[in-house]
Design goal:
There is one protein chain. With about 525 residues, this protein is α+β, with helices and mostly antiparallel strands. Strands 1-2-3-4-5-6 form a six-stranded antiparallel β-sheet. The protein is globular, with a radius of gyration of 31 Å. The two termini are about 25 Å apart.
Length: about 525
């Protein structure tokens, strides 16, 4: 805020002018020229050894070596050279220098609209390309893009090969290897891993670069079948969407679910998956068992190619369910799906994390309802024990804390907070002598207050909203003395003061009194409030 104030003062004065390097240099061109010493850097006293050897330059992590840097560089160099040979061998770019096309591919990366991609391919590869040739050309260019990305310098900059930066460049390498295999049926991974195995980790459990690649880098890859499985598992969600995008993937289809006691016990359907990067597509049948008894995962999803997207019938879904849930159908299950039987472990990491959260949230919601029922059934007992000066059993107290937290947050997240209901909830908090989750409630409180204040910044002053804001602040800060984050709320209040200064200056009634009370509660000085018309 101090910096913002400083810049604002400079911008509104004649004492100085804010500028950028480009503008400054246009007025004051360089008077001398320097030549950079090749193979040198600002962060390594040994030239550029920080990016290729155990030179001791790092971020100072105690007892860390950098012996992994050279093997990591060697592995990437090997992969780069092999990918370059494959790229040059493609006959798609016979009429143009393939490396010129590679460099021009930036125009596609910046604009992946169908019109731009088609224009690029027509100009650089050839007109009247088949769909397969379009996909192949884009896949070749993506292979080279990942070949460049895997040399991102921060991959070598820090102290440990298992950090997120080296893992990320390994993920680029994994994607390049995957594309090379699909395009040329050449597997570059074994030799790449052989070299990576010579890169020792500082973490004994992770051993070396090869193990880190297997554990962390390959998990980031995604292909058509993985995304089809991801779509299939989302069909277990209550708010399952038949059409949506995930990263660069578009998915559309449908599912038929079997339910027991309002809970999905099996789901099957079909999905069309399309990559916005390479244009590759596929249609798949999926079958999802959320309570797989035979595997180590709670969720199993089988995937196989299909023709058309007509949903399976109820009878067909029941047949698929029998394949998963009968112990005698292992061979039939393999005959149907082969090795394409996925679990949550096979879903791309970012998608997996979000999906697990959503699946758990469904169960959490159901548990919340059960817990509320328990508290409701025992509220008179808790009241009686409290009057006697006895504490209820710990499990009931914990349940009450969870329930009250949930109820308070629910009221704060509603379209408009139920203040009287909140007061009752806090009376229970005091009477039962329980401790709801203060941190979660404080976040919900801040969001609620900010939304109410922001609404007035757009829609104008409201006496009732100002009174409710005062009541909420009193309830949360004075009565319960909770430490509240008021930073955003103070900024919104100040904006509201500036917008309505003339209105507040002319008003000597309830509105200005309520605004002044709110300002004092938000710790504004009398000077600021006076300048705002109060």
């Amino acid at each position: 805020m101090a910096l913002a104030y400083c810049l604002d003062c400079l911008d509104n004065s004649n004492e100085a002018q804010l500028t950028v390097y480009g503008e400054f240099l246009s007025f004051y061109p360089p008077e001398s020229e320097v030549k950079i010493i090749e193979n040198s850097s600002w962060s390594c006293a040994h030239g550029v050894e920080r990016w290729r050897s155990d030179c001791s330059c790092g971020t100072g992590t105690p007892n860390c070596h950098h012996k992994w840097r050279k093997p990591l560089r060697d592995a990437m160099n090997y992969l780069r050279d092999e990918l370059a040979k494959l790229y040059e061998s493609s006959n798609l770019f016979a009429n143009t220098n393939p490396w010129t096309i590679r460099d021009r591919y930036i125009d596609v990366i910046l604009d992946r609209s169908d019109e731009n991609v088609n224009a690029f391919l027509a100009e650089n590869v050839g007109k009247n390309l088949s769909d397969n040739d379009k996909v192949r050309a884009l896949a070749l260019l993506e292979m080279q893009r990942n070949s460049l990305l895997m040399f991102t310098s921060c991959g070598w900059f820090f102290d440990e090969i298992s950090r997120i930066e080296p893992v990320q460049i390994m993920r680029y390498a994994a994607r390049a290897i995957e594309l090379a295999k699909s395009l040329f049926n050449v597997d570059l991974e074994p030799e790449y891993l052989r070299i990576l195995a010579q890169a020792p980790s500082n973490v004994p459990e992770l051993q070396d670069g090869a193990k880190i690649y297997e554990l962390r880098a390959k998990q980031g890859r995604a292909d058509l079948k993985q995304m089809a499985a991801y779509y299939g598992i989302t069909s277990l969600l209550e708010d399952f969407k038949q059409e949506f995008s995930e990263g660069c993937w578009d998915m559309s289809g449908g599912a038929l679910a079997i339910k027991e006691n309002d809970k999905i016990t099996f789901s099957a359907g079909k999905v069309h998956v399309h990559s916005n990067i390479t244009g590759v597509t596929g249609d798949y049948l999926f079958a999802v068992d959320p309570a797989n008894k035979k595997g180590s995962s709670l969720i199993a999803c089988g995937i196989c190619k299909c023709n058309g997207l007509d949903l399976p019938t109820e009878y067909e879904v029941e047949e698929l369910q029998a394949l998963f849930q009968s112990e005698d159908n292992e061979e039939a299950l393999f005959a149907k799906f082969g090795y394409d039987q996925f679990t949550l472990n096979n879903i791309p990491y970012n998608s997996r994390h979000r999906l697990i959260t959503e699946l758990l949230q469904q169960d959490v919601h159901a548990l919340e309802e059960q817990i509320k029922a328990i508290v409701k059934n025992h509220d008179q007992l808790m009241e009686y024990l409290t009057l006697l000066g006895s504490k209820p059993p710990a499990i009931i107290t914990t349940t009450a804390e969870f329930t009250l937290t949930s109820e308070i947050i629910k009221k704060l997240e509603s379209d408009y907070p139920d203040i009287n209901g909140l007061r009752r909830d806090f009376e229970y908090v005091n009477f039962w002598q329980v401790k709801p989750d203060e941190e979660r409630i404080r976040f919900a409180f801040s969001d609620c207050m900010n939304e109410m204040m922001a609404g007035m910044c757009v829609g104008g002053l409201s006496l009732q909203i100002i009174k409710d804001l005062n009541d909420l602040l009193t309830l949360f800060s004075e009565k319960f003395e909770w430490h509240l984050s008021l930073y955003d709320l103070q900024n919104l209040y100040y904006e509201l003061l500036k917008q309505n200064k003339s209105i507040l200056k002319q008003d000597n009634g309830e509105l200005s009194q309520a605004m002044r009370k709110l300002g004092k509660a938000l710790k504004f000085s009398d000077e600021i409030l006076s300048k705002g018309g109060l």
